Amino acid sequence: MKRRRAGVPTRERILDEVERLIASKGVYGFKLRDVAKPLHVQVPAIYKHYASRDDVLVEVSRRFIGLLAVQFQFAPAREPRRALRSGLNRFVEFKMLHPAYVRLALIDFATPEGGMEYVKRAAGGSFEDNFSNGPLAAMHVRLRTVLRAGARSRCFRRVDAMDFYRVVKSALLIRLVFPNDELLLRRGTTAEIRSVQRWLWQIASGYLAPRTQASALMKRRHARRESP
What we know:
The chain is 67% helix and 0% strand. By secondary structure, it is mostly helical. It has a domain at 73-211.
């Protein structure tokens, strides 16, 4: 982040710096003095805007929820397969251009009930609750709608939308942190983003393929492995 961006309130610059530090050091790898130093302020200045370090992290998580809530926007007349691939491409860009949110999501999954669950607090409820209520509900409605349209047109098999979201979200999170987290430590190139987009689409389209297509695909892959 630059020294000081003209016109950007201190409250927002604090969040920008926290995002940068989460991406590079992890959720628990920095202190508020690490936030204050590049902003050329003292730690008490941060407390004028946020009650605690946890309060800052919840506010960063609210940013995350706000951007996640607008994912999977589909043009009504677009063919379901093309619409879904476009939506997944934007989902990959969202995660790769906001690496702090990947780390926050992983911390939330690792925190048992009763701990500091930043993303869940920001969303106002559990992940399961947000499939039908809360700020993420509309996103899940859009995803269910395109999956059902694809099933009606027989380009997808019928699947549970929650299961599909589990597959693509978990696959993408693991892809970005295993076997290394290099793509979280720097801005991905256009080629790297496109590579991850193709990879995720392979997984998603294979999961959604009608049974006859999936069986034929498995046979072709097996034949390629067996060929000399």
